[in-house]
Structure formats: C-alpha cells, structure tokens
Amino acid sequence: MISIDTLGDELYTALRGRHTIEPLSDRHPELTIEQAYRIQERMMLRRRQDGERIVGKKIGVTSAAVMNMLGVHQPDFGWLTDAMIVNQGEAIDTATLIQPKAEGEIAFLLKRDLMGPGVGVADVLAATECVMPCFEIVDSRIRDWKIKITDTVADNASCGVFVLGDRAVSPLDIDLHTCGMVLEKNGEIVATGAGAAALGSPLNAVAWLANTMGRLGIGLKAGDVILSGALAAMFPAQKGDHFRVSIGGLGECSVRFN
Known about the structure:
Layout: H1 4-17, H2 24-27, H3 33-49, E1 54-60, H4 64-70, E2 76-81, E3 85-86, E4 91-92, E5 101-110, H5 121-127, E6 128-138, H6 149-154, E7 159-164, E8 180-185, E9 188-194, H7 202-214, E10 225-227, E11 235-236, E12 242-247, E13 251-257
Helix pairs in contact: 1-3, 5-7
C-alpha cells in the first residue's frame, strides 16, 4: 500500500540528511505519476514548513533523449525555493548536495501571471520580463540516479540548486528556437545544444508548464523564475569542477564547486 505522506517524508529526510534511498518505482511499481506529484507536494510542504519560500518552477524531461531513457513522452515539473538560489560567482559546497549534475538551460523571469489552459507562445512572450542563461544543478535523492518518471516527479523533478547568469535579455531580442549553447567543464567543451532541444523551443516548454499547472488550478506568477529545461546532456559535478555555459545572444553563466 502506498502512503503518500510516508514517501514524501522519506524523500524530505533524505534531502536534509544528504543520503539516498532505494527507487520508489522498484518498491511500488504500481505508483502513478499523479501519486508521485502528491508525494512531491508532501516533500515541498515539509520544506516550506522549514521556512523555504517558493520563487518559481522548473521543467524537466524536455529532451527526446531523456524521455526515451525514462520511457515517457511528457515533461515534468518541480518547485524552486529561495534556498536553492546560488549567486553567480559563489562556489557550491559539494557537501551540501548528494550526487549533483550540471545542466545548461535558459531561465525566464515573468512580469505577468500566466494561467492555463489555453496558454500559447505569444502569451509566454507577453508575460516574460527577460531571459538569461542559467545552470540547474540537478540532484537525486534516489540511489545512483536509478530513476523512472515516478521517482523524479516525487523527488521534486530531481531539483538541487540553480545559478542565474548576470545578463538579462528581452525574449523579443533573441531567437529562442535557434540560439546555440556551448557547455564547458574545466575548460573543455563537453556538449553543444540549441533552444530547440527543449520541446522545440523554451517558449513551448513554458507554455506546457502553464497549461499543465493550470489544469491543476495552479498559475505561474509575476516574479517567478522558470527553468525551461536542459539544452544538452547533464554532467556529474565534483569538488574542484568548474562549468561555463555560453548561449548565443544571451551571454554566459558559470559555476564552480568546492
């Protein structure tokens, strides 16, 4: 029998204790995505009870490669809190995470509320104050990243922390579909990508989020930061690593680990 509160509390305890747990999908193969979101809700409730404040949302599983890996054909979402913010130039203490990996993305800052269903790309453009390059440092509380879609959904879409670049650009001044990304690790290019990697465009990804959350009665709010999904593969991060992402028309974002 699945206990939503018990599993949510287990993930919360793993987060705070910085340890992993066995995959939920192995222990509860009958677990549905809807139940996984309820587990996520319980985990985030515990975090809010600690004083964390919601500052935005993240979109995961936006690339075809990750969808195929997880055997699904839809993205997922999670919540961002003020405790997840890392300022560019600050080093991330690897001891505060469990098994981190770095992803290069495009972040949106909203100036207007967005409430689906019925949100299209034009609505996303009109509601966006600016876009910027960013890193999402994903982190899984599931042992060895042995995740299926229900595992990552329950685990707040495997969110760890995030770093925003220091240059903000109007979404009207950049082609978010074709903009190219170069990801470097310790000075070596390890991946390239483009905006189209995120559901064809990061704009599509944010529209998907607004419509999906709207059907649940949840809106995107003015002031929200939205992480729109990885533009290339994610790479493990260890003490001493330095990452830099460059996105055409947007600029750079960097992060280091100590």
